[in-house]
Amino acid sequence: MSSRRFVLQWAAAGWLSCVAFVVLPPVLRPMAGSAPDLPTRARDALIEQWESGVVAPVPSMADLVAQWADYHLLKSAFAFLVVVALARVLGLLGREHPLLVGVIAVAATVAWLVVFANVQGALAPLASVVSLLPPVSTDARYAAALSGLRADLASGVANPVTSALVEDFRFFHVVMVALAIASAVALGLAARRAARTGHLRSTAHTGAAVLLVVVLLVIGAANLSTALDPIPGLLGALPSPTP
């Protein structure tokens, strides 16, 4: 009965952390303007940054990047609390609930990947802001900024703005490489120890752990490829300069 109570308590903690993940970051770190305004802010900041021609962030870009980093830091913290709660539930459930264990393990994996994504956004916010950029409509200055960025990227011209964006985009993927490999190693060592002590009670559990390690290594390898050659990925992430 005590074990069941602890399971319910940790499950409730996980649910509350999910709610906090969605609700609290905008409250604790309000963004200037509403969510629909973010693409407009990103567009205007990019135009100002491009036209400045300097590496140092212009005020509009500095404000957006700082807010975006804090926002993702908060979301990564709440997502991590979800992972902790789900891990505790997994540790308390016995072998008599294999289906439930599988569902919670998948949920914990998804939550862990959400942690990864938000840590990326917190540590490399400039690259993350690229995802906010809207499609081009009739704004000639925006189209010119995107055209200039794309031309520099394609030709390898070392424009200060382009270089700063490339380096942050590279670091964005280096962060994922580090997180994925560290998690794969930690999970592999934990699974090996659990197998030796008898905590991995079935072949299915062992197979799931091995599969997750492989998935993490694949994620790490894919991001390493982009980190070594970030320009094609950045070109793909930027909106087209023509509507």
TrEMBL record:
Taxonomic path: Bacteria, Bacillati, Actinomycetota, Actinomycetes, Micrococcales
Q: In its UniProt entry, what is this protein called?
A: Uncharacterized protein
Record's keyword annotation contains Transmembrane: yes
What highest taxon heads this organism's lineage?
Answer: Bacteria
Q: Which residues cross the membrane?
A: 73-93, 100-123, 171-191, 203-224
* Cross-referenced PROSITE patterns: PROKAR_LIPOPROTEIN (PS51257)
| Keyword tags | Membrane, Transmembrane, Transmembrane helix
